[in-house]
Design goal:
The complex is a heterodimer of chains A (504) and B (258). Chain A has 504 residues and is α/β, with parallel strands linked by helices. Chain A has helices spanning 64-72, 98-109, 134-150, 174-180, 212-221, 246-257, 272-276, 279-287, 303-310, 370-373, 376-389, 404-412, 423-430, 484-493, 500-503; strands spanning 83-87, 90-93, 121-123, 154-155, 189-192, 206-209, 223-227, 231-237, 266-270, 296-298, 330-335, 342-344, 352-354, 365-369, 397-400, 459-462, 478-481. Chain A has 15 helices and 17 strands. A five-stranded parallel beta sheet of chain A has the order 4-3-2-5-6, covered by helices on one side. In chain A, strand 2, helix 2 (98-109) and strand 3 form a beta-alpha-beta unit. In chain A, helix 11 crosses helix 13 and helix 11 (376-389) runs parallel beside helix 14. Chain B has a domain at 74-249: Aconitase, domain 4. In chain B, strands 4-3-2-1-5-6-7 form a seven-stranded mixed beta sheet. The chains are: A alpha/beta (504), B alpha/beta (258). At the A-B interface, helix 2, helix 3, helix 5 and strand 7 of A face helix 4, helix 5 and helix 6 of B. Chain A: Pfam families: Aconitase (PF00330).
């Protein structure tokens, strides 16, 4: 095993009565810090007990997440387990859940009710867009009506489904669009009606997914009832090998702690490797926190973050950082220089295996896209590998840029080291399918006519985030989750392939 | 996995005869439970699904600090449908069905008909028989991490719409649990042991909720299992959902006041 973990003395935990996010009717007060029993299946280690001041009134250190939530609840201090009403900075919804969320909002607050702040809601159609499915199309129309009625400032609308470029407002995949449009800012609270809203934690903010009912509540009040999660810390150090990507890191971690390893917890990522990652790579890392059951993921903001954010928004923000004496419920350390490319085999994101140990797995197709693996840098990486290999793909290779901007980058930006060629040119020379209209695409299957949907029981290597049965369409489809490098390498051989075959 | 798991001795006078019909509630003098009555708050009109989920108060409402409210006694009874670990939301309701908008009854019936249709074909017993809307199983028993995956509320909604009243899982994914509580579609309960390994689809079960937890009785096997207390979610469920709870604690005004 390439990772090592800090050991420390075992830790006495309260018995695991599951309290789940809602306060007792007696007044909400600062509780004694409660640590939870870790699931028996997981190898977990505990941080040593921190400063143990006995009096409850002494201010103890807080983690990043605790600080963000405390500030949003207008409290000076919170501890894990506290149930608090939190002010929301941004609420995001899309075409699939928006109609339901607004429907609930109207039902509960009245047909003539107004949203709490029309400038803090971002509506991003992205899931089922380029389809003839009438209901899918209906959902975008419904959102248009709501946005018009409520004067929602940020509605990235699409009306011409035949040509995405004819829609100047349309963006594409919500989590990538949120970042690109400057809606992600350190220290804030961002909620979205999508499980991968945790992606935005890459910006040092609290970001998590909620359902329509909660969203309906936020629409009317700008607040949500949240339970403060304890934080698991993942310290990643060491130089990132040239063949490794953030997707490998998160698959490594999920394989380590399992799909429920972070349930109800924060996953905080830090260390020298994290500091070396670009924003898009940090987004990939935080994107799959939900696949470990995590409530939110978070990365301390730094110059990389500020540079990205300040180029996209002038809204002021206030970054926060975990205190030196904050308490973490678990500590994991990884020496990244020793890690190898990995995949998640069917049918679970924690079914980790080394890519090189799967080289006998014959595949039928490759899919590069989604909020997890369809960003500009993801395509750049795939193109870089194709260019280095100089060969043609052996299986259909589907390319689904996440947003309009990504699509344009694929066609406009030169790939470093490729003599001025763009991603699109390299993809064409390698025999990939033409990059398609930006959306969530087939990551979650979608209506029957969705481009690249898995309609047969085929084997697919994908840069997406989940591979449970039926995820991309067919129930017997076999999905191997992988990094863009691994996906590109696999396309070239027709088998699951370690990218070192072509990159070293 | 251990071959024998701890089960409670029967707390009731031994009854050698099984209930005469699966639909007869299992009663005993040592357990008190009330027949559920619909509870629709007058100040808000919840959709009809809230009535599927009824919690009469067993004790007077308590005010002020100190005393905690109690989750009044509720029972569920029916056939169970057994699943194992990591049943994700796409298996509960395939993602392409998310375009269905269960705000009207017709689409609610439609989404009900697809409940658990994403399960692999190795599950030969379907939760909802193709062509029907309702399931004959009103209680779902599952393993760990039930409802993992998406935040889409279509997952608990389709189960409730199909007639499921409660889920007894070993553990839940957090968004699914939260959505179950928020929508009131299914009552999410946790077992203390792997009940999913001891029950078979089609067993007749009763769930009795109490303040300190609950009791699952499998009438087909004769075994009983403790269920964990609902915890902090209790007051929200008790109030009738997040909106009702928020009104109760004064976070939002009642519509009649506006």
């Amino acid at each position: 095993m390439a990772s090592s973990v800090i050991s420390s003395s075992p830790f006495l935990c309260k018995s695991a009565q599951k309290d789940l996010g809602f306060p007792k009717p007696s007044q909400i007060s600062v509780h004694r810090c409660q640590k939870r029993a870790i699931s028996r299946k997981i190898v977990s280690v505990m941080a040593p007990q921190r400063s143990s001041s006995a009096t409850g009134s002494v201010k103890t250190g807080m983690t990043m997440t605790e600080k963000i939530l405390a500030k949003a609840a207008e409290k000076s201090q919170v501890v894990p387990g506290d149930n608090i009403w939190v002010n929301v900075d941004v609420l995001m919804t899309h075409d699939v859940c928006g109609p339901g969320a607004f429907g609930i909002f109207k039902r509960e607050f009245g047909e003539k009710a107004k949203v709490w702040d029309p400038e803090k809601i971002v509506v991003i159609p992205d899931h089922y867009i380029f389809t003839a499915d009438k209901r899918a199309n209906r959902n975008v129309d419904i959102m248009r009506e709501h946005c018009r009625e409520q004067n929602i400032k940020y509605f990235y609308d699409i009306t011409d489904l035949g040509d995405f470029r004819a829609n100047p407002d349309y963006k594409g995949v919500c989590h990538v669009a949120l970042a690109q449009e400057g809606h992600c800012r350190p220290g804030e609270v961002l909620l979205g009606t999508d499980s991968h809203t945790c992606t935005a934690g890459a910006f040092g903010q609290f970001a998590t997914g909620i359902g329509n009912t909660d969203a309906g509540f936020v629409l009317g009040t700008g607040k949500i009832l949240l339970k403060v999660p304890p934080t698991m810390r993942f310290i990643l150090d060491g130089e990132m090998p040239s063949y490794l990507q953030a997707k490998d890191l998160i698959l490594q971690i999920i394989g380590e702690i399992s799909v429920a390893g972070a349930t109800y917890k924060t996953m905080e990522f830090s260390g020298t490797t994290i500091e070396s990652l670009t924003m898009e790579e940090r987004m990939t890392l935080c994107n799959m926190v939900v696949e470990a059951g995590g409530k939110n993921g978070v990365i301390p903001p730094d110059a990389t973050t500020f540079n990205y954010v300040e180029n996209r928004t002038s809204v002021p923000f206030e970054p926060v950082y975990s205190d030196g004496n904050a308490s973490f419920i678990a500590d994991y350390r990884f020496d990244v220089s020793k890690l190898e490319p990995v995949v998640a085999k069917p049918h679970s994101p924690d079914n980790r295996a080394l890519a090189r140990e799967c080289k006998d797995v014959k595949i039928d197709r490759v899919y590069i896209g989604s909020c997890t693996g369809g960003k500009t840098e993801d395509f750049m990486a795939a193109a870089k590998l194709f260019h280095a290999a100089g060969k043609q793909v052996k299986v259909p290779t589907f390319l689904v840029p996440a947003t309009q901007k990504v699509w344009m980058d694929v066609y406009a930006l030169p790939v470093p080291g490729a003599g001025g060629k763009t991603c699109a040119q390299i993809f064409e020379e390698a025999g990939c399918d033409t990059p398609t209209s930006p959306s969530c695409g087939a990551c979650l299957g979608g209506p029957a006519d969705t481009y690249a949907r898995l309609n047969e029981p085929q084997v697919c290597v994908s840069t997406t985030n989940r591979n449970f049965p039926g995820r991309m369409g067919h129930k017997e489809g076999q999905i191997y989750l992988a990094s863009p490098y691994t996906a590109a390498a696999s396309a070239l051989t027709g088998h699951v392939t370690d990218p070192r075959e072509f990159l070293q | 996995m251990a071959s024998t798991l701890p089960t409670l001795p029967r707390a009731l006078p031994s009854s050698s005869s099984k209930p005469s019909s699966p639909l007869v509630p299992f009663r005993s003098s040592s357990l008190k439970f009330t027949t559920p009555t619909p509870f629709i708050p007058s100040s808000i009109s919840l959709s009809s699904r809230a009535a599927s989920f009824v919690i009469p108060r067993a004790t007077p409402a308590s005010h002020g600090s100190g005393s905690t409210e109690t989750l009044a006694k509720t029972t569920f009874h029916g056939l169970c449908f057994v699943l194992k670990d990591n049943i994700d939301t796409d298996q509960i309701i395939p993602a392409d069905k998310a375009t269905i908008f269960p705000s009207n009854q017709q689409e609610r019936d439609e989404i009900a008909s697809y409940a658990l249709s994403g399960l692999p074909d190795s599950h030969t017993t379907r939760f909802v028989v193709p062509g029907e809307i309702k399931s004959k199983y009103s209680i779902i028993i599952a393993g760990e991490n039930f409802g993992c995956g998406s935040s889409r509320e279509h997952a608990p909604v389709c189960l409730g719409a199909a007639g499921a009243k409660a889920v007894v899982a070993q553990t839940y994914a957090r968004i699914f649990f939260r959505n179950s509580v928020a929508t009131g579609e299914v009552f999410p309960l946790e077992s203390e042991v792997r009940v999913c390994d001891e029950c078979t689809t089609g067993d007749t079960v009763t769930i009795e909720l109490r303040d300190s937890g609950g009791l699952l009785t499998n009438h087909t096997t004769g075994k009983q299992y403790k269920l964990k207390a609902i915890g902090d979610a209790g007051p929200v469920i008790d109030a009738g959902g997040i909106f009702a709870y928020a009104r109760k604690v004064g976070m939002i005004p009642s519509p009649s006041v506006a």
